[in-house]
Specification:
- This protein is α/β, with parallel strands linked by helices.
- The protein has 2 domains: 74 residues, Roll (2,3-Dihydroxybiphenyl 1,2-Dioxygenase, domain 1); 75 residues, 2,3-Dihydroxybiphenyl 1,2-Dioxygenase, domain 1, CATH 3.10.180.10.
- The protein contains 4 helices and 8 strands; from the N terminus they run H-E-H-E-H-E-E-E-H-E-E-E.
- The N and C termini lie far apart (64 Å).
Length: 182
């Protein structure tokens, strides 16, 4: 009898640990503590190369969505999607970017500055070393825009620097890390 009670308690404990590890997230109504961000690109290979070589993401596979399903759920007007997944970090809490190229032509949004159009305008990536990030960018042939890297203002954190680059489709990518030479 004591053995059955012990096993029941042990099984209950193990189930609660598994449940906590897979979706509780401290009372949040969400099953994952992260979001995936999808981006339609004009050249899937160029986007993957930029985000892996110049920024430092890792390829994490991909998947396809057939045109009928994509149309049925409202993703496209019937175009199939080829999606590549890139991650920044490791494990379940890694940031995931999903890049897709749809057949045909997608409209490009005007984005002279981050405030030019409504919607998501840029992503911010926090780096451990601005010097290493700049070396990766230079090796990939990517130049920062304007006057960057530049120290953040005193009211934020002047020990950190902001570097802004554009991906192959002109989207803004902010890199925030220690001032160069730190």
């Amino acid at each position: 009898m004591k053995t059955n009670a012990f096993h029941s308690v042990l099984i209950s404990f193990l189930l609660s640990v598994v449940a906590a590890a897979h979706g509780d997230h401290h009372g949040s109504p969400f099953s994952e503590p992260t979001i995936d961000l999808g981006c339609v690109v004009s050249d899937l290979d160029a986007a993957v190369e930029f985000y892996t070589e110049a920024i430092g993401f890792q390829e994490a596979g991909g998947f396809q969505v057939d045109g009928d399903y994509a149309k049925e759920v409202g993703l496209t007007d019937g175009k199939a999607l080829d999606i590549k997944v890139l991650t920044l970090g490791e494990g379940e809490e890694a940031t995931r970017l999903k890049f897709m190229e749809a057949g045909g032509r997608s409209r490009k949004v005007k984005n002279d500055h981050i405030t030019t159009s409504l919607g998501f305008s840029y992503i911010t990536i926090f780096v451990k070393s601005t010097d290493e990030a700049m070396a990766r960018l230079e090796k990939a042939g990517v130049k920062p825009i304007a006057n960057s890297p530049k120290a953040l203002p005193a009211n934020l954190n002047p020990e950190m620097a902001l570097t802004i680059v554009r991906d192959p489709d002109g989207n803004f990518v902010e890199l925030v890390g220690p001032k160069p030479g730190s």
